[in-house]
């Protein structure tokens, strides 16, 4: 449908809806339920150079209108992603996929990205400098403009694919981080990753999560995410992908009005495996009600004074 | 896996904290005893996983213990209410390994999934023995139901107020061919040490999605990382690695 189309870093999308990394695995569980080729694309499970088990369990906690996770980047490692997951994915997903990459050093980010750069199925590299659940990596690159600059520059040097840097909200000035990424050559910015949070079990008097703290996501974080998308979209000239608590067609439209050219959906996939399908199906009717003829026309609409 | 809406037919207390909910809906995705459903509840963000206790046509029976917000909300559910369920989750027990005289070992709220397992094994002509453990007499449930299926039943209570005094491992019978167990982790560890045959263990873990997408409930096994919700909840004895 023409009116849902958008463009992300030069690659056309049938619609702006993108399941977020960590909520969709490599798509297989969802492809058993519906044809996931209806999606704009999806961002696959955060991949590191080496395979990782992640954190001990419990890794999941709940809160009002949301959840916390401390999975800790469990993934099979980039070699297995290339040797097994991508070939398997060919059977059920036929669009360019977004490869989400994380690391523990600048060199590791670059090495993993260089390997994924050679994969035809990969459309974009989404560089996660914002995982709150690993020590000595992840978020530490996304909370300092200089570190974010270094990672972005190193990745840009090894790939011709568009590089989208995924930012952490756990900073005082997200605009300065976004600008550092843009200065280093990033082709796009995605935000927000989860907010660092925690819960305590009242009976045991211990943190619910084995990792003590974890990433807070779900509808409760939507206004924070929207605010940051609005701020960043107003400060950079590269495309912005909005995410954080998006659960409905209305939320997608709101994110786009704040300046997002595409929208990722995370936690909603876990409570309703059909969430993205429903959002895509609901978009045309919601647009009709709001007098929107194409999504392209509303990108950044809230920014116009 | 299927997502569908079920109607609550009955919801009643069996003990002070254990309830039975009977629902009607599309059960076609449920293929094995030991599988679970994941229930969406008003006002709570994450679904609640509950094991399948019994299944007959379109009628689904769930037993659950009230331990937190989700199960408290379930206990307040009235007949006629409709609930959104993901069904057919998890691998379930493999009945093909049972031999002729399978032993079922259940502890507390680990007892429910063994009920459908017992029913299916007995339907295959197996001679089923069930040893069911509880803390105390007032917490015992489903003794009569297991007997009515034709299982030989031993009850163990930790305080000795009913049946044999002790844990299920203090009441192991002689001469069983294989075992299936579900219960709290200390019990599963004790069964692992005490059992005289091979068997299958059903594990519990806090879950995000319940269908294998989020990696929230992963564990390490002899054969690699597994997701309790998708590759489990049932693991074979030979693949278990305990976290110490």
Shape of chain B: globular
**Total E-strand runs of chain A:** 15
Taken from the alpha-carbon principal axes, the silhouette of chain A is globular
- Helix tally of chain B equals 4
CATH topology type of chain A:
TIM Barrel
What is the total domain count of chain A?
1
Q: What would CATH call the homologous superfamily of chain A?
A: Aldolase class I
Question: How big is the Rg of chain A?
Answer: 18 Å
Low-confidence stretches of chain A: none
Determine the oligomeric state from the structure.
heterodimer
Q: Give the total of domains of chain B.
A: 3
What is the helix tally of chain A? 9
Number of separate strands of chain B: 16
Task: Tell me what you see in this structure.
The complex is a heterodimer of chains A (305) and B (244). Chain A has helices at residues 28-31, 78-89, 106-117, 145-156, 174-183, 222-233, 249-257, 268-271, 275-290; strands spanning 6-8, 11-13, 17-19, 60-63, 66-69, 97-101, 122-128, 163-166, 188-191, 195-197, 200-201, 206-207, 214-217, 240-243, 262-265. Chain A has 305 residues and is of the alpha/beta class. Chain A has one domain (2-303): TIM Barrel, CATH 3.20.20. In chain A, the strands form four sheets. Chain A has a seven-stranded parallel beta sheet, covered by helices on one side. Chain A has a four-stranded antiparallel beta sheet with strand order 4-5-13-10, with no helix packed on it. In chain A, strands 1-2 form a two-stranded antiparallel ribbon. In chain A, helix 3 (106-117) links the parallel strand 6 (97-101) and strand 7. In chain A, helix 3 runs parallel beside helix 4 and helix 4 packs parallel to helix 5 (174-183). The radius of gyration of chain A is 18 Å and the shape is globular. The two termini of chain A are 30 Å apart. The model of chain A has no long low-confidence stretch (mean pLDDT 96). Chain B has 244 residues and is of the alpha/beta class. Chain B has three domains: 2-89, Elongation Factor Tu (Ef-tu), domain 3; 95-202, Rossmann fold (3-Layer(aba) Sandwich); 204-244, Ribbon (Dihydroorotate dehydrogenase B (pyrk subunit), domain 3), CATH 2.10.240. Helix content of chain B is 15%, strand content 35%. Chain B has helices at 69-75, 112-123, 143-149, 185-194; strands at 2-13, 18-24, 36-40, 48-51, 54-56, 59-65, 82-89, 102-107, 129-134, 152-157, 164-165, 178-182, 199-202, 218-221, 224-227, 234-236. Chain B has a seven-stranded antiparallel beta sheet with strand order 4-3-7-1-2-6-5. Chain A binds chain B through residues 22-25, 29-30, 32-33, 45, 53-54, 56-67, 69, 71, 74, 218-219, 267, 269-274, and chain B through 1, 3, 40, 44-47, 86, 205-209, 211-220, 225, 230, 243.
């Amino acid at each position: 449908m023409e009116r849902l189309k958008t463009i992300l870093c030069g690659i056309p999308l049938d619609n702006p809806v993108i399941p977020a990394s960590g909520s969709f695995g490599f798509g297989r569980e969802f492809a058993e339920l519906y044809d996931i080729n209806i999606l704009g694309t999806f961002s696959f499970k955060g991949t590191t150079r080496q395979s990782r088990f992640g954190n001990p369990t419990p890794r999941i906690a709940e809160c009002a209108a949301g959840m916390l996770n401390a999975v800790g980047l469990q993934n099979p490692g980039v070699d297995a992603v290339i040797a097994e997951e991508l070939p398997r994915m060919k059977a059920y997903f036929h669009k360019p996929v977004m490869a989400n990459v994380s690391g523990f050093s600048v060199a590791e980010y670059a090495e993993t990205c260089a390997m994924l750069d050679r994969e035809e199925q990969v459309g974009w590299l989404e560089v996660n400098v914002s995982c709150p659940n690993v020590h000595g990596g992840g978020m530490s690159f996304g909370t300092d403009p200089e570190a974010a600059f270094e990672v972005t520059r190193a990745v840009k040097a090894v790939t011709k694919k568009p590089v989208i840097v995924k930012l952490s909200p756990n900073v005082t000035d997200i605009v300065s981080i976004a600008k550092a990424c843009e200065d280093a050559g990033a082709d796009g910015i995605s935000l927000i990753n989860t907010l660092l949070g925690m819960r305590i079990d009242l009976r045991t008097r211990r943190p619910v999560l084995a990792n003590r703290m974890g990433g807070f996501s779900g509808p409760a974080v939507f206004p924070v995410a929207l605010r940051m998308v609005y701020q960043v979209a107003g400060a950079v000239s590269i495309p912005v992908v909005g995410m954080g608590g998006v659960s409905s067609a209305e939320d997608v439209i709101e994110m786009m009005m704040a300046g997002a050219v595409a929208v990722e959906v995370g936690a909603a996939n876990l409570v309703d495996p059909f969430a993205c399908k429903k959002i895509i199906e609901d978009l045309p009717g919601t647009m009709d009600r709001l007098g929107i003829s194409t999504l392209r026309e509303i990108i950044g609409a809230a920014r116009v004074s | 896996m299927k997502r569908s809406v079920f109607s609550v037919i009955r919801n009643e207390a069996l003990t002070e904290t254990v309830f039975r909910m009977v629902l009607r809906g599309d059960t076609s995705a449920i293929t094995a005893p030991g599988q679970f459903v994941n229930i969406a509840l008003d006002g709570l963000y994450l679904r609640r996983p509950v094991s399948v206790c019994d299944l007959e046509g379109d009628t689904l029976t769930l037993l659950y213990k009230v331990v937190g917000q989700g199960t408290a909300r379930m206990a307040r559910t009235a007949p006629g209410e409709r609930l959104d369920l993901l069904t057919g989750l998890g691998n379930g027990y493999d009945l093909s390994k049972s031999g002729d005289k399978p032993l079922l070992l259940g502890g507390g709220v680990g007892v429910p999934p063994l009920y459908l397992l017992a029913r299916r094994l007995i339907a295959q002509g197996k001679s089923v023995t069930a040893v069911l453990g509880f803390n105390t007499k007032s917490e015992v449930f489903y003794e009569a139901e297991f007997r009515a299926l034709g299982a030989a039943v031993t009850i163990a209570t930790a305080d000795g107020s009913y049946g044999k005094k002790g844990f299920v491992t203090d009441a192991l019978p002689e001469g069983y061919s294989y075992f299936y167990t579900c219960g709290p982790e200390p019990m599963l560890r004790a069964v692992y040490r005490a059992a005289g045959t091979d068997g299958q263990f059903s594990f519990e873990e806090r879950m995000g999605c319940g269908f294998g997408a989020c990696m929230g409930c992963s564990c390490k096994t002899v054969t690699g990382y597994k997701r309790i919700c998708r590759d489990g909840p049932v693991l074979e004895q030979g693949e278990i690695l305990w976290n110490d």
